[in-house]
Amino acid sequence: MTSPARHLSQAAEAVRAFNHESITTDEDWQYAPHSYNAVGNLAYLVRMLAQAIEQSTSPAKSTHEHGRLLIDGGGDPDHAMTHMRTALDTAVQAAGLLSAAVDHLHSATASMGLDTRGLPGFES
Predict the structure, then answer these.
(1) Each residue of 41-79: pLDDT tens digit?
(2) Backbone dihedral region of 75: left (phi > 0), alpha (psi from -120 to 50 degrees) or beta?
(3) Packing angle between helix 32-47 and helix 77-109, nearest 10 degrees?
(4) pTM of the model
């Protein structure tokens, strides 16, 4: 894949890898600050979703504007675009809500730390 869509494929693969690696707890994934860092990175990713969603429909919009959009089964291109725009508006709105929720989650984890008293490897 050499189109801009390959970046979304790579992002999806990175999220899949995170989901796989974060199932278990180890020394790099066990303390509250690890959550703060992960949620911060996730918040950054989620903040960009609305723009990515919007721009992912640009080729379909362009194809339609040039009168070249075909719909399976002989469907109406104008109707299909209206449907797509409605779905797009819903997705962009949902992305905005998700972004606000993950930013709130990030704030909620900001004050969390680790009490290292008595933990091996943290002796003073």
Answers:
(1) 999 999 999 999 999 999 999 999 999 999 999 999 999
(2) beta
(3) 150
(4) 0.88
